[in-house]
Design brief:
178 residues, alpha+beta, S-adenosylmethionine decarboxylase, 8-stranded antiparallel beta sheet, 8 strands
């Protein structure tokens, strides 16, 4: 008896698939944000499911399996972590509360298809009510000449500052002694 859950998505047979050029654009979003309000742990499955579903829909991604949610084990910072495998890689995050501080979300999205950082901000703000945040957007490539990184800062869904990492590295090198 087979117990594995089957996906409703059609399966691609790579041996018979039409030959076409495979174009991959490796994009990574790292978002570290304070939230304006605490999230209700009793609603973690509903809240996280809605957030991930909206990200998948907005970014045009498909789930590769079930959304996984794990409770924090260190109760000095209660919260939960989640992972959603997608056909182009993954979405993962960790929500936690630290007594006396604003609640936080740490979110990582890695995909082999293009995405817009601003779309991620809109979705996350809509579901979690972002306060101040910092982020990194990376266009990964094995060719260092094609690799790009931006450091970002904002509030809510607003992007307030964007710094190309290459410029920051050049400035640091120029200011380094010796």
């Amino acid at each position: 008896m087979e117990h594995a859950r089957r996906s409703a998505r059609p399966r691609v047979c790579w041996a018979t698939a039409e030959a076409s050029e495979l174009v991959l654009e490796h994009h990574m979003v790292v978002l570290d944000a304070n939230l304006k309000r605490l999230l209700d742990p009793a609603r973690k499955t509903t809240l996280t499911g809605a957030l991930v579903h909206d990200l998948l829909t907005t970014l045009g991604m498909e789930p590769l399996g079930e959304l996984e949610i794990y409770d924090a084990v260190d109760l000095r910072a209660p919260g939960w972590s989640f992972v959603q495998a997608i056909t182009t890689s993954h979405i993962s995050g960790h929500y936690f509360e630290k007594p006396g501080r604003m609640p936080h979300i740490h979110l990582d999205i890695y995909t082999c298809k293009p995405l817009q950082f601003e779309q991620v901000l809109q979705v996350v703000d809509r579901h979690l009510d972002l306060a101040d945040w910092v982020g990194t957007f990376i266009c990964r490539d094995m060719d260092l000449g094609q690799r790009r990184t931006w450091e970002l800062q904002g509030y809510g869904e607003r992007l307030l500052h964007r710094w190309p990492m290459q410029n920051l590295l050049r400035q640091a090198e120029a200011q380094a002694p010796g």
